[in-house]
Amino acid sequence: MESSFREHRRDLRQVALVILDGVEINAKNKQESIKTGVGILDLIENHSIIGLAREHIGTWAQCVTKETAKAVEELSFAKKMYNLMVGKVSNFVQLESFIKKEASSGNKKVEKKIQRGILNYSLIDTNNNHIFKKMSLSNTIKRALSASPKVLAADNPKFYAMVLDFTQSSADILEKELLKQNELKIGHDLQMREDQVKAMERTVDQKKKTIEGIFDFMLPCKSIIETNFRVRMDDGSHKVFSGYRAQHSHHRLPTKGGMRYAPDVDMDEVKALAALMTWKCAACDVPFGGGKAGITLDSKAYSVAELERITRAFAQQLNKHGFLGPAVDVPAPDMYTGEREMAWMANEYQRLNPTDLNAPACVTGKPISQGGVHGRVSATGRGVFHGTDLFINNQKYCDMIGLTTGWEGKTFVMQGFGNVGFHSARYFARKGAKCIGISEYNGDLFNENGIDILDLEDYKLKNGGSIVGYPGARAWNAETEGPLIEAECDILGVCAKEKVITADNAHKIKAKILSEGANGPITPKGHEILVKNNQLVIPDLYLNAGGVTVSYFEWLKNLNHVSYGRLTWQFTEDQNRAILGSVAQSLAAAGQNIPINASEELEKSIHGASEKDIVHSGLAFTMKRAGLKIMETADEFNLGLDVRTAAYISSLRKVYEVYSQAGFN
Ligand SMILES: NC(=O)C1=CN([C@@H]2O[C@H](COP(=O)(O)OP(=O)(O)OC[C@H]3O[C@@H](n4cnc5c(N)ncnc54)[C@H](O)[C@@H]3O)[C@@H](O)[C@H]2O)C=CC1
Ligand SMILES: O=C(O)CCC(=O)C(=O)O
């Protein structure tokens, strides 16, 4: 896809946002409508979503009917949008070539065509005087087109479109390179006869088609399920929940990825996260395809018993539809889920599949008593540390961003103090960096002399899960001091949620290194600004892969039916003690009666490696190897500080190879 086309799509989205902004409707409806406008444009521009248009709009309508007073009208509006869209989408090829052609023509013409496009999408409801009632559309469009960037809408891409954007631009680079290498083959042997050249040309042509076919196939999500299931509440009433699981890629099985509970979870979000999982697993050579699940709910609003019933009901649905099982699809913890939810899922799966010997491997992130592995809880944060450690100790990258190497004396701010944020902060601090700020959803803390991470975690646990009021730091006033993530520091850990750094605030971020512990915390436009400003973004698809890496170890443990180290532990200790004894004996034979004792350090590890040792060293090795590969790719493609593109290329190349060598006919 040419970059002009991508730019053009952004223009379309911005204009749509401003149009909807000009509509006189109440604030909540306006919010919903803006979402719809953007959603519709995304649907049209997104090839892979065509078959899912109906479900997507249905979900949107459902959400609106639940949340706004104008429920019925909104629903009929959504249906009309859907009908219009299906009409357009069946014509997508023409629409795309039309936009592409116009994007490369003169500016004025492009604007007119944008206007016409927007009119097509926006006027559909003028007949029944609904949303666009009091608006002069053409004036609004004029205003939109002449608006200064400040007036234009916020940078808020749909999550899946955002991941596709990152993937597509990296895929373009790699695909071009592979096609170039393919072409080169013909020119190689000048001694070839004409018929040989022709045969070679045919081979090259076929290979070109295969390369293009693989790239077209690699990007979109392969299977997605939406399930609306019923659960009994504690008061005897029944409630319907929407759950999703996306399997992005089946190039390796099972598919793997977390499960989150959040009020704004939808299909777009799980698709985006599943796609990220594919590239993440590939980055770290974890042999899984990408998957992700979510249930649209606010977990704080339900009792533990209700959450258990919801989780079990969801597991039943996934099991029924082939989206759960050790060989097919293996969930894990993500936002607002943890060991507890994983235990319920594993238990439910085992109940439904009593003869499956490998049943515990149907989810990872379980408690140890249920077949979990030591070190999974802290694994993602540990991986964030290892990845950041690799870059912060690399002279070349530190020179590029004007920072000295090493942790000592560095300051950091952490956004998100949940599983990933807490453990990342713990390891950063352990290495000598000073945590000066912690940002949470309900309040921020600041202490220029440093915040004690373990003490804060203690406080949080005793304080109902909130960091607010912690006595070891002062409350940061975002209203007067600005958002904490924009504060002066060396490293910013973005470990809370997606889309927190966008074109609207990227230029205000002062940290030299941004560690993406969360999935998708920076939008494509935000990323572009940071790279231009010589800031180093260590990207999610590499940096937070520690979780899935250790999940892989847990899955292997479950398939092996034995914990790491159990078979070698005693043997190694006996052998080590025998070596010490043998040295003492030899000395004695030579007349030297010197007792040979293990040093304190050797005594600590005289037995074989424990499960924890194996998991920790396996994770450290994985993060280092993957990071070095990404650095090598950045050099190969001359990408400078754009480590994200390097990581995507590195992953795309690995997935491409799997398809290519498996046979793609
Ligand atoms: N748990 C895991 O193993 C992995 C998690 N991730 C990603 O890391 C991110 C965080 O996940 P977890 O730590 O597991 O979730 P979590 O639920 O344990 O922690 C998230 C924390 O972020 C806070 N938060 C939410 N919105 C915020 C905001 N606007 N500003 C500041 N803080 C905010 C929450 O209050 C919570 O404390 C997510 O994007 C997740 O997908 C990525 C890889 C693995
Ligand atoms: O441990 C896993 O399988 C997945 C972790 C996850 O959801 C993620 O990396 O985003």
Q: Which geometry do the CA atoms define?
A: globular
- Quickly give the CATH architecture of the largest domain: 3-Layer(aba) Sandwich
What name goes with the CATH superfamily of the largest domain?
NAD(P)-binding Rossmann-like Domain
Q: What is Rg?
A: 27 Å
Which consecutive residue ranges, at least 5 long each, have pLDDT under 50? Answer: 1-26, 43-104, 109-152
Look at the structure and give the CATH class of the largest domain: Alpha Beta
List how many beta strands DSSP finds: 12
Proportion of residues in β-strands = 5-15%
Characterize the biggest β-sheet: 7 strands, mixed
CATH topology of the largest domain: Rossmann fold
The bound ligands are:
1,4-dihydronicotinamide adenine dinucleotide, 2-oxoglutaric acid
* Tally of structural domains: 4
Q: Can you list the strand order of the major beta sheet?
A: 9-8-7-6-10-11-12
Describe this structure in words.
The chain has helices at 3-21, 27-45, 53-67, 71-90, 92-103, 107-122, 137-146, 159-188, 194-218, 267-283, 304-320, 339-352, 376-392, 395-401, 419-430, 453-462, 478-481, 524-532, 540-543, 546-560, 569-589, 600-604, 611-636, 643-662, and strands at 223-232, 238-247, 255-262, 289-296, 329-333, 411-415, 434-440, 443-446, 474-476, 491-494, 513-516, 536-538. It folds into four domains: 3-153, no CATH class; 168-210, no CATH class; 223-370, Rossmann fold, CATH 3.40.50; 378-546, NAD(P)-binding Rossmann-like Domain (Rossmann fold), CATH 3.40.50. By secondary structure, the chain is of the alpha/beta class. 55% of the residues lie in helices and 11% in strands. Residues 1-26, 43-104 and 109-152 have low confidence and may be disordered. Helix 20 packs across helix 23 (611-636). A seven-stranded mixed β-sheet has the order 9-8-7-6-10-11-12, sandwiched between helices. It has a five-stranded mixed β-sheet with strand order 1-2-4-3-5. The structure holds 1,4-dihydronicotinamide adenine dinucleotide and 2-oxoglutaric acid. 1,4-dihydronicotinamide adenine dinucleotide binds at residues 258, 333-336, 380, 415-421, 439-441, 495-497, 517-519, 544, 547.
